[in-house]
Each structure stands twice: as structure tokens, then as C-alpha cells.
């Protein structure tokens, strides 16, 4: 990463790496994504987590030599992929009710970290396999420079009609281009109103220490596991029985400690970390 690139990344929160993949690479990876799409949701939209697990052919993107240097320049050598997904979005068939999609990546991180601005914590690569060089093709929409802003003016509820944030712009990229961005930049996927199916793979990188260090894989098989409380299981790394609980806190009502605090009236909405 050059000094100029680093300065631009620090200022804008993103870089576009043009032509990072060759035409042959674009075809190879696009065909791989097409096969996954055909298995899961043929003809419909797809947002599939664990990209390489579901599509091993994408493993070459984890450390692609054209762009991986940007990752370790920012995150250092002690990094790993903590979140990845394959996205395929054909033309929208009908207008859906308004929904405020603007967000920073990281989920609960943005409620539970108290500094202003919050720390970077992770970066992301987005590999594009379709032509979104024109607006209206499901482009990723971003607010340049917003990565150092903790809150974006928005509606009281996501379903309330609200103007697009000031300074928002659609990212215009061609097949083989890669977007490298700070997880904190405010962004949203726009609807695809074209005949070009949007195809992209995202890989998020963070420090390897953002995970449980203790051995947890075999805990549910231990003889004492059933004798401890759900909250104690949560604290030992359990993410529930598959009914909704998730380590990222997407489903508060199925998270044991949330339920206990709610029952005791201890969820103080004036404290961001305690807001559902």
C-alpha cells in the first residue's frame, strides 16, 4: 500500500482497485458463483454467508496477490476472515416497501463500543463479477468519509420514508474491479433496476484475537453441560440451539443474558450497549 493510497483510504474510507482480476479469473469465479446460485436460489436473490465453505473455488480470493497487500497493510499479519458472503441480485420484480438499509458493518460493535469515532476493527474486500459501471444495477452506495462518523441522521424506524444521506454516491465498477473499504463506512445496497444480474463476493478481515481462545467445540458433549444455566453456556461460547441465537447478537430475544436482563427490568435504553 503506497503512502498516497493509505492517505486516501484514511480520508475516504475506501479504495477502488481497478482491473484486479483478469478476464479469465472473472469468468472462473463468476461461473463458480453461478453454480452456487443455481443450487440455492435459482432465479432469485442470494445472500449466502461462509463464501468459501459453500463455494471452495473462491478460495483464491482470500489472499489474491492483486489486493491482499491492502488487507495486511491495514490489519497486519495476525488477521483472518471473520465474515464472508456471496451476493447475487437479479432485477427487482416489484417495488418493495421502503426500508432504511444504511449501516456500518460489525452489527453490535456499533452499539457496544463507546469511543468516537469507533475503531476500525476490520476491513473488507468486495470482488465484482458483473458490470455495475452505471447506476441502477444494484450498486453499493456509500458516503465517502463517513467512516469516522458514529451516527448517520436517519429515520426513527427503518420503515419510515427518509431521504438518502447527504453525499451518498453509487460505486461504479466493472467486472474484475475490487472495492477495499473500512467496515465503518456508512453504506447500503441499492436496488437493481437493470437486466444485469449483480454478482459480488465479500470478504471481511479482522484481528485473529477477536474470537474465543478457550476450547469450546466439545463443550455440549461434556457431562456437566446440561447442569449449568443458559447464561453460563452463553458465556462459555454457546450460540444456542439454532432457533435464532447468534454470537453477533442479531436475535436479542433468543440470547439468554438479554432475556434475563429484560425479565429483571435492567435494559436501560439510555445505554447503547443495552439497546436491543
TrEMBL record:
Gene3D superfamilies recorded: q2cbj1_9rhob like domain
Ranges annotated as spanning the membrane: none
One Gene Ontology MF term: 2-oxoglutarate-dependent dioxygenase activity
Keywords: Dioxygenase, Oxidoreductase
Protein name as catalogued: Ectoine hydroxylase-related dioxygenase, phytanoyl-CoA dioxygenase (PhyH) family
